[in-house]
UniProtKB/TrEMBL annotation:
Keywords: Membrane, Transmembrane, Transmembrane helix. The lineage of its organism: Bacteria, Bacillati, Bacillota, Bacilli, Bacillales. One of its GO terms (cellular component) is membrane. The chain crosses the membrane at residues 277-297, 350-379, 400-424. Pfam families: GerA (PF03323). This is GerA spore germination protein. GO terms for biological process: spore germination. It comes from the Bacteria.
Amino acid sequence: MSFYSESIRNKLKEILHSGDGFVVRGIGKSFAVSYVAGMVDIHQLNMHVLECLTDKGPVESIENVREWIAIGECEVMPSLHEATEKLLSGYAVVSLAGTPHILVVNVMKIPTRTPSVPTIESTIYGPAISFTESMELNIALLRSYISSENLIQESIQLATETNTKTNIFYMMGTETNPFIDTIRSRMKTCRFKGLIGSPMLLQLLQDNQYSLFPEMSLSERPDVAAQALLEGKIVIFVEGNAQVIIGPNSFFDFFYSIEDRYSLWGVGIFNRTLRSMAFFISIYLTPLYVAALTFHYQMIPLTLIVPLIESRTTIPFPPLLETLILEITIELLREAGARLPTKVGQTMSIVGAIVVGQAAVAAGFTSNTLIMLIALAALGTFTTPNYRMGATLRIIRFPMLIVAGTLGLPGIAFLSALIIVHLLRMTSYGKPYLFPIYPPNKDGFINNMLLTASSLFRFRTDLTKNNRASFRTAARRWFSSNEKDE
């Protein structure tokens, strides 16, 4: 190692507070090449950098060195200290004796996995490929779906100690995107120590950060991201994450699946109707059971009263406590299955549910009727395509059970009214969260919720158009038309 390369090593030790992890190779007496072990492509480094610097005569400036290296992404930086961030990102840093300027060369090769079949958003139809932890590969997958000059990409590096890189994608059409300025400003003003996962950034970008209901979604599928872009939404890539952020979304967007567009329009409508029914089943089925047994026996048909009474003769708990015990048991099995390895977790969830259910009935702690209702409610949450919304429904069910067991039907109605008011007040980047139900929008209802044969290829809706006053206008027209009819 030459005297110059040794001095570069000492400078890097001072900057990085350590001498481990990086390599400094001296080439002659004038050059020193530094890189982080394991983060560079050794083949490119040897062929395009080290060989180009070997046996070279006197060099006047670092710009001359740049002309020798046959790699497109090269950048001259004013000092070694400013090039440290590139060094830690996987770039090779070329130093020349006699000048403070530094040449950084992109020979990055971060360990990653190849694209595989989606494991979270599985579908029967459509592409069987998912994003990975490599941002470059993810961007290539997205551009393979939309190769248009209207697809705009913006890079933003968040002000964190992790120096996380993000990329924003949106479609530039005849009108400006109404959300890009807001999202860009929120991302640039984010101040936190480090960003490890895209769900952490998602929570900071929402209008209502403390609401249980999500406003932006995560997806591992390139076709879902492409669909969102065509609808006028924004897609955010976070470095090192296999899921992209998509937004803004309305409440009903979380119950749609990309497979609805791949199926026949009638099948798509049926599936969406089925999910709507599952939504109400997951929230209200067990609370209505508890309220009926506790306060409203007159609601139960006569043919069902006798079997219910016989099934509960040996149960020592009131309906509310019995239901809460089973709901908590289901959540424990779900959490245990998620934390265990895949095959073991699936077996644990199935076998655990069967064993616990049979043992609870045999011991007289619960009835077969309630176990069936709990299973239907759990299936209702599983039909929700979006995991974040499914988790919200599971949480809401617990306070709904408590008010049902303490106040009966009036408690269920009161809590439901509070939830509806909260949803009506929510916005997603200035747009109503309950679009197209509120304000009423006939075209949005047909194109988004019904998904008719003629609307399969309609993408952009009033939710994503740059018309902030259109919702107020639509609401006034709807209410005025009803007044005229009266």
